[in-house]
């Protein structure tokens, strides 16, 4: 005869198991929801203006129209350079895009002004981020080996554009 243990094994009723499982799932869902809210929705769009000095292109009146072929060609080259620079950097997950907005004449070439867009936490320091963005952009411009001749020392970045809360952007859509 098999000896039964003196300790009784206590079994939970099925409804108690269901309550525990559902309670745990609800707690996990609330935790994940709060994390997503605070990590995603506490983001701001940060805009920076980058001025890239290009010395081997002469200004042409076509550059004054964003719809012209020359403007679009230069826009594609500059935007690709900036995109590549930030996609290969520590800011790749924060970088959204760049857009060439203006080409201005200079004595020894042109200055291409691009608008750079990033997602950063609303608690981040605007000036510290501007410095980081500037360092990464200068490093990318120094490493650039394409057809454009860029004067890195004359190229600048500023944070003159305003920021928008993500909530405002979402409310527009």
UniProtKB/TrEMBL annotation:
Highest taxon, organism lineage: Eukaryota
Parts of the chain that traverse the membrane: 17-39
Biological process (GO), any one: proteolysis
A single MF term (Gene Ontology): peptidase activity
Keyword Endoplasmic reticulum in annotation: no
Record domain SEA: where: 44-162
PROSITE patterns found in the cross-reference section: SEA
Keywords recorded for this protein, A-Z: Hydrolase, Membrane, Protease, Transmembrane, Transmembrane helix
Keyword Ubl conjugation among UniProt keywords: no
Name of the featured protein: TM11A protease
Organism, scientific name: Erpornis zantholeuca
Gene: Tmprss11a
